[in-house]
Automatic annotation (TrEMBL):
Keywords: Hydrolase. Residues 31-243 form the AB hydrolase-1 domain. This is Alpha/beta hydrolase. The lineage of its organism: Bacteria, Bacillati, Actinomycetota, Actinomycetes, Mycobacteriales. Pfam families: Abhydrolase_1. The keyword Hydrolase applies. One of its GO terms (molecular function) is hydrolase activity. The keyword Hydrolase applies. InterPro entries: AB_hydrolase_1 (IPR000073), AB_hydrolase_fold (IPR029058).
């Protein structure tokens, strides 16, 4: 990770105690914040971070995930505020943001709430939640939770379901996902927060550089990737041809390269 060993730690913020993994604190370069999807943890970006040099890297367990305390309010807004509070505690005035799925919406909200603190925005498989999308998601079946069964078959069912969304056999990726699912009493709480968000209310608030990263084999996100592009007239797009629901883990080299190329081409560092 940035040529230095990752440093896990707990940080007490105004939004509660958060677990965060950092590297490169002594690097004289910009800060890069990586925000995971639900119900994952910082571990989702472990491989990507190891391929990126020259940054101070900050990867939090978002509130209610991994080893971070659950927030009183289960909303995208509260999560974004918590990450800004974390950056305040770490004395990071501004940063490049990268968010995947749920983490992308958190980054979207951070950019709308505090645009002066966001150097650039990379939104990977990030949904645009407008009235039509909120209605489509209303009453949708749980995506991550499967009721426990005495014979343990729910674990096999969860394994098979996740495999449907991956481009290739990836036992290690599936195992890491299932570990995080099993650590939650409600692994779909993040889905509820996403479904209640109002992306349209934040249009036009962030004028800075944006990269919309789409994963061609992400069955949940790719069919609607044009909507997030339309939200940012200044945005560039990069399509990960082999990308899927877990692109930071299944194609980390291409994911990291897309970030670095974007920064090299359009971001003033």
């Amino acid at each position: 990770m940035s040529g230095a060993a990752p440093e896990p730690m707990y940080v007490q913020t105004r939004s509660g105690r958060m677990h965060v993994v950092t590297s490169g604190a002594d690097i004289d370069g910009p800060c890069l914040v990586l925000l995971h999807q639900t119900p994952r943890s910082w571990d989702e970006f472990r491989d990507v971070a190891g391929l990126i040099d020259g940054y101070r890297i900050v990867i939090p367990d978002l509130p209610g995930y991994g080893a971070s305390e659950a927030p009183a309010e289960n909303t995208i807004e509260a999560t974004a505020t918590a990450v800004l509070d974390l950056l305040d505690t770490l004395r990071v005035p501004c940063a490049h943001l990268v968010g995947h799925h749920f983490g992308g919406l958190v980054a979207y909200q951070m950019a709308a709430e505090a645009p002066d603190r966001v150097l650039s925005l990379v939104l990977s498989s990030t949904p645009f939640i407008d009235a039509e999308e909120r209605e489509r998601r209303r009453g949708a079946a749980p995506f991550n939770a499967i009721p426990a069964r005495a014979d343990g078959d729910h674990l096999a069912a969860l394994w098979r379901r996740r495999a449907e969304y991956l481009t290739q056999s990836a036992p290690d990726v599936q195992a890491r996902y299932i570990r995080d699912v099993l650590s939650h009493s409600d692994p779909d709480r993040g889905t509820a927060a996403v479904s209640a968000y109002r992306s349209e209310d934040r249009l036009g608030r962030y004028p800075g550089p944006v990269l919309c990263m789409a994963s061609a084999r992400d069955k949940r996100a790719f069919p609607r990737h044009g909507q997030i592009m339309a939200a940012f007239p200044q945005a560039r797009e990069h399509v990960l041809g082999d990308g899927d629901i877990s692109s930071p883990e299944t194609c980390p080299a291409e994911f990291a390269r897309a970030i670095l190329d974007f920064h090299a081409q359009v971001v003033l560092r």
